């Protein structure tokens, strides 16, 4: 029975991947920037173009993107030494990181005691989310984010399993990918202190600040731009008379998170650790708060993509605390919901289908 379940699970994985790669819209680098409006790509590719050196006092590169120089620099270096087009190298890195994300997800699920339907549903929530795998197939320049999702999944597992030593490394390394990783660091520090791992806490803090200092020095040399603090607390200056715009802004993350509403009908699992759950929840809340605090004029529609950075952690948190086993044992609910998740993945910008564009607001 176990072998049969494994075969079903892996066949489902293959089907999902084929579905994603065959229904995603593929654009040129020019069209990604100027048709799809992914303007951050300009800064990322500018870093890559200067490899194996780094840009110096660039007026093109945005400050907060200059701090994410690691993966674009690696992509540019590969392109420089192999003479392969930069866009092609970014695609290679993105597909490699998707494969890594897939392996980490499978390993994680194999370490749980979830039944086959729960595993398939967990995988579907993760891989059919339009802002995770599909978005990165569509826009491979931000390949570092799919790596960030992988680390989020690893950190969640390490916290649940009390893997304190490994947590020191995985709570620090994502700061090289994006600033949102500060949420992981803060919550991991609290977790280690709660476990009375004072030496581990000290080492992690030391590594974090060394890394942060290094990133700051490099990014200051890369870009002459100044950090826009609207990204941190722009909502303070928002014109609250535009209440309709604010409500639309606050509702946008639901595009990514609303399928998780099924957990309202789940059953609470027994013997879960309250502290671990609160640590995972704190990471999610801090990650969600960051783009919300930037406000409608700071985050714009990017609020969906940025809040989704916590999605793997939130998914682990929900499956750790709640069971859907009884609900999805009913075939009509289970299969109908899976079908809905496939439709949910068909984002009108990222997929070849545009019928959901009528739902834009």
Helix-strand layout with pairing:
Layout lengths: L1 H22 L5 H6 L5 H10 L13 H4 L3 H13 L3 H25 L5 H12 L2 H9 L4 H18 L3 H7 L11 H13 L3 H25 L7 H4 L9 H9 L2 H4 L9 E2 L5 H21 L8 H5 L3 H11 E2 L1 H4 L2 H14 L17
Antiparallel strand pairs: 1-2
Description:
With 361 residues, the protein is an all-alpha fold. It has one domain (2-359). The protein has helices at 2-23, 29-34, 40-49, 63-66, 70-82, 86-110, 116-127, 130-138, 143-160, 164-170, 182-194, 198-222, 230-233, 243-251, 254-257, 274-294, 303-307, 311-321, 325-328, 331-344, and strands spanning 267-268, 322-323. Strands 1-2 form a two-stranded antiparallel ribbon. Helix 11 runs antiparallel to helix 16.
Order the strands across the largest sheet as they lie in space: 1-2
Q: List low-confidence stretches.
A: none
Number of helices: 20
Subunit organisation of the chains: single chain
Q: What structural category arises from helix and sheet content? A: mainly alpha
In the residues, how many domains can be counted?
1
- Straight-line N-to-C gap: 47 Å
Proportion of residues in helical segments: 55-70%
- Overall geometry comes to globular
Report the portion of residues in β strands.
Answer: under 5%
Question: What does the main sheet amount to?
Answer: 2 strands, antiparallel
Average pLDDT reading? 93
